[in-house]
C-alpha cells in the first residue's frame, strides 16, 4: 500500500509541478551536493546498478529521471550501447546534463529530452532496458510510472532502479536519520538556498514504499523475476526486474 504523498512545497499544487520547480532551483548545486552528502558513495551505487545490465548487452536504453545524466554517462562507459535516451521534467537539470555529455564526448550516444515519466513519448516495446536512479520516489503516481516504463520495454527487457531506502540496523538507523533529517537540510540551506528541497528528500524517503513493498509494486505493474539488494547498510536499495 502506498504511503501518504509528500510534496516539496505546498499541499495545493501537484507534486509533479513542484518537483520540477525544486530541481530547476537546485540544479546548479545538484552534482556537488550529491558527492558531498553521500561522501562519493553515490558513484559506486550507480556503477553497481549498471553492472546489472552487462550480461544483457542492451543496445537501446531509456534513462528515466535522468537529471544531470550521471547514470546515462555511466551506462555509456560500461555498456557502450548504440543509443541512450534520457528523459526528465527539469529543463535546468537537462541543460547541465547536455553540457556534461558534450564535454565527455558522448553526445553521439546520449540524447536528453524533456518529458514526463508517467506519460512517456515512446512506442510500446521500444527499449532493451530502462534505468531510474533516485527518481521513482518523486513520481506523482508510482504505479502509473512503473506501468509506463513496462510499456516501452521490449519483452524480456530489464528495469533497474536505484532508490534511497530506510536503514534498519541499530544504531546506524538512528545516526543516519539524524543526519538525513537535521544536518543535510542545513547543508542544503547554506549551499543551494532551498532548504525545503532537502527537507523533502528526508520526508520523501520516509514515505516511500521501499524493500519488499517496492518489489510488490513491480510485481503488480507487470514485472517478473523481481529482486532487491540493499546497499551501504540499507541507505540505498538496488531493484531489478524483467518485462
Features:
seven-stranded mixed β-sheet, 8 helices, alpha/beta, Rossmann fold, about 45% helix, about 240 residues
Compile the SSE list and pairings:
Elements: H1 15-37, H2 41-51, E1 60-64, H3 70-79, E2 83-88, H4 91-103, E3 110-114, E4 127-133, H5 142-152, E5 153-164, H6 172-192, H7 195-207, H8 212-220, E6 224-231, E7 236-242
Parallel strand pairs: 1-2, 1-4, 2-3, 4-5
Antiparallel strand pairs: 5-7, 6-7
For the termini, the CA-CA separation is: 22 Å
Largest β sheet strand count, sense and barrel closure: 7 strands, mixed
**Proportion in helices:** 40-55%
Number of helices: 8
Radius of gyration based on Cα positions: 17 Å
- Classified by CATH, the class is Alpha Beta
CATH architecture: 3-Layer(aba) Sandwich
Which fold does the CATH topology refer to?
A: Rossmann fold
Describe the structure.
- The chain is an alpha/beta fold and 243 residues long.
- It has one domain (15-242): Rossmann fold (3-Layer(aba) Sandwich), CATH 3.40.50.150.
- The protein has 8 helices and 7 strands, in the order ααβαβαββαβαααββ.
- It has helices spanning 15-37, 41-51, 70-79, 91-103, 142-152, 172-192, 195-207, 212-220, and strands spanning 60-64, 83-88, 110-114, 127-133, 153-164, 224-231, 236-242.
- Strands 3-2-1-4-5-7-6 form a 7-stranded mixed beta sheet, sandwiched between helices.
- Helix 3 links the parallel strand 1 and strand 2 (83-88).
- Helix 6 (172-192) runs antiparallel to helix 7.
- The two termini are 22 Å apart.
- The model has no long low-confidence stretch (mean pLDDT 90).
Amino acid at each position: 500500500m502506498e504511503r501518504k504523498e509528500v510534496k516539496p512545497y505546498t499541499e495545493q499544487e501537484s507534486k509533479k509541478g513542484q518537483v520540477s520547480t525544486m530541481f530547476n532551483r537546485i540544479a546548479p548545486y545538484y552534482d556537488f551536493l550529491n558527492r558531498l552528502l553521500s561522501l562519493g558513495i553515490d558513484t559506486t551505487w550507480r556503477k553497481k546498478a549498471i553492472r546489472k545490465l552487462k550480461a544483457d548487452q542492451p543496445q537501446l536504453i531509456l534513462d528515466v529521471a535522468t537529471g544531470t545524466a550521471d547514470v546515462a554517462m555511466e551506462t555509456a562507459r560500461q555498456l557502450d550501447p548504440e543509443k541512450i535516451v534520457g528523459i526528465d521534467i527539469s529543463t535546468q537539470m537537462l541543460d547541465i546534463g547536455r553540457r556534461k555529455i558534450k564535454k565527455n564526448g558522448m553526445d553521439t550516444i546520449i540524447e536528453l529530452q524533456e518529458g514526463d515519466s508517467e506519460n512517456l513519448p515512446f512506442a510500446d516495446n521500444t527499449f532493451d532496458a530502462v534505468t531510474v536512479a533516485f527518481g521513482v520516489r518523486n513520481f506523482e503516481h508510482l504505479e502509473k510510472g512503473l506501468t509506463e516504463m513496462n510499456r516501452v520495454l521490449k519483452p524480456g527487457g530489464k528495469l533497474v532502479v536505484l532508490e534511497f531506502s530506510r536503514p534498519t540496523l541499530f544504531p546506524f538507523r538512528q545516526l543516519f536519520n539524524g543526519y538525513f533529517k537535521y544536518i543535510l537540510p542545513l547543508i542544503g540551506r547554506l549551499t543551494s538556498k532551498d532548504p525545503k528541497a532537502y527537507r523533502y528528500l528526508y520526508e520523501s524517503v520516509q514515505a516511500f514504499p521501499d524493500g519488499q513493498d517496492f518489489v510488490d509494486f513491480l510485481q503488480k505493474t507487470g514485472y517478473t523475476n523481481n529482486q532487491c539488494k540493499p546497499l551501504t547498510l540499507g541507505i540505498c536499495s538496488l531493484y531489478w526486474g524483467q518485462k
